[in-house]
Amino acid sequence: MFNIIPISLEQGLAYALVALGIALAFRVLSFPDLTVDGSFPLGGAVAARLIIEGVNPWVASIAAFGAGFFAGCATGIMATKFKINSLLAGILMMTMLYSINLRVMTRANIPLITAQTIFTPIEEMVEKMDMSRDWPVIGLFLLVALLCKVLLDLFLHTEYGLGMRATGDNEKMIRSLGMNTDNVTILGLGISNAMVALAGALIAQDQGFSDVGMGIGMIVAGLASIIIGEAVIKPRSIFLLTSAAVFGSVAYRFIIALGMRMGLAPTDLKLATGLMVIIALAVPAIRGGREKKLNLRGV
Amino acid sequence: MAKNMLKLSGITKIFNSGTLDEKRAMDDINLTVKKGDFVTVVGSNGAGKSTLLNIISGTYNPDKGTILIGNQDVTRYPDYKMAKYVARVFQSTTMGTAEEMTIEENLCLAEKRGKRRGLMWGVTKSRRSRYGELLKFLELGLEDRTSQKVGLLSGGQRQSLTLLMTTLAMPKLLLLDEHTAALDPRTAEKIMALTEKMVRENNLTTLMVTHNMNQALQYGNRMIMLHQGKVQLDIKGEEKEEMTTKEIISKFGQTLRDETLLSV
């Protein structure tokens, strides 16, 4: 029972970057961005390829961040400049990224077990001290997740960040106040997918391989995390919104771990997660309450 | 001699061009507005009132003609570029503010209208105290609620806030698009009083579209009446002061079959 706590924390904090990215796209920009299923493995692919080519793993992770940024921008450009429906733009990008990821990796799977990753120093250290690698790794993920959360919080309170929030809230209004909302949307999706790709890079290194299929269901899992998080922490402000994303990510992984402990097959995970999201969205609709549904543009 | 603030020359806008639904929403409109003018714009449904404001604010670009603001040719400017010159208040009270954001955040958004938005902190301490002072002008007690979300405000409060927001970065031109039409009569009256006070105190050049002939005659120093995309009547100063709704009806009753417009 207790050994599911470190594993949920480790996974939850690693995937918190995905939840933050999805919160930025879906909640702040009100943009239903499906790129995530492609930008997550993109991050893993870029980092893994660079690492086996001998690049420093931190540099490789930052490159993954950059690759995700461009993928997000591409979706944004399709949706705004080419006026492609936002869901379709995301699906197109996600699909194209599948080919791109295979090109980057040159094969479907790159093992990183023997490679130098950002965790290698931690692993060497814990081996000397004869302790588990769990807690130092959790500490690292916590640091990265909190850093991203705080930077996002601060950014969304700057003059430009306020404009980005207004873009998701009342696009017509902020355009009439002089902001080119196309560019704001493109940049926002870039930042969102950059964080997602960074998560892909970190998780590939943590689990010891990058796989082209590792992004399947990432959006749904991220949405489930946000829904769980927001059920506990009411997102009355940006600070609470990002807190809910991080907390929800950990809670989601904990629930999943608990479910598997109770006999849920790993192959049924995505079904269970999907049902979780459906129920969370259906309950307010059926109850007819005044609770706000996901309010999205361009759907 | 007052300077020209807005000059429309030969503005034509045709919707659904070349189809059965072709509509000439603006037909060779020429209009010059001087600095400090308060022009009311009337006309029945479909006369082109909203199209006029949409063209001036860059929501649509005209098919023909030019738009000058001061001496600047802004004909092809998109809406977000026009924001540098033009502030607009819409009919819908939800249109002018971001409801998920706080009052002070909305004010900060408005303060940066048409300016560069950088990575500087948005609602700073000095801004917050200045916004508090500004909000007192509305006499709605909003100065004590600056960190509340705008979505919690009533329609009238939101429209008052929107009006205040237009003056945070002084526009060259204020466009009011039936901004009291969605409010109950008492609130509408309050908003009009506030509008007049703000226009007067800031000497704003204003275009106000209204559906209400009495309002159009009561406020401003000039009134234009649109019909089928053309300027049908243009009265200023004394001529406007002396004009009554009855006279207008007897003159233009044929074309003004819009009941709300003529309701007394």
Keywords:
heterodimer, A: 299 residues, mainly alpha, ABC transporter involved in vitamin B12 uptake, BtuC, 12 helices, 74% helix, B: 264 residues, alpha/beta, Rossmann fold, six-stranded mixed β-sheet, four-stranded antiparallel β-sheet, 10 helices, globular
Number of helices of chain B: 10
Give the tally of structural domains of chain B: 1
Query: Biggest sheet of chain B: strands side by side, in what order?
Result: 6-7-8-3-9-10
Q: Would you tell me the overall average pLDDT of chain B?
A: 90
| Strand percent estimate of chain B | 15-25%
Radius of gyration of chain A: 19 Å
| CATH uppermost class of chain A | Mainly Alpha
Biggest interface goes to: A-B, 22 and 32 residues
CATH topology of chain B: Rossmann fold
Oligomerization status of the protein chains: heterodimer
Name the strands of the widest sheet of chain A in spatial order: 1-2
Segments of chain A where pLDDT lies below 50 for 5+ residues? none
The proportion of residues forming helix of chain B, as a percent range, comes to 25-40%
**Shape field of chain B:** globular
Description:
The complex is a heterodimer of chains A (299) and B (264). Chain A has 299 residues and is mostly helical. Chain A has helices at 4-28, 36-52, 57-80, 86-105, 120-129, 134-155, 159-169, 171-176, 181-207, 218-232, 238-261, 269-287, and strands at residues 109-111, 209-211. Chain A has a single domain, classed as ABC transporter involved in vitamin B12 uptake, BtuC (Orthogonal Bundle). Chain A is 74% helix and 2% strand. The longest helix of chain A is centred in the middle third of the chain and has 27 residues, at 181-207. Chain A is globular. Chain A starts with a helix and ends in a 12-residue tail after the last helix. The model of chain A has no long low-confidence stretch (mean pLDDT 93). By secondary structure, chain B is an alpha/beta fold. Helices cover 33% and strands 24% of the residues of chain B. Chain B is built from ten helices and ten strands. The A-B interface holds A 155, 157-163, 165-166, 169-170, 172-181 and B 57, 78-81, 83-84, 87-88, 94-101, 105, 108-110, 112-115, 117-123.
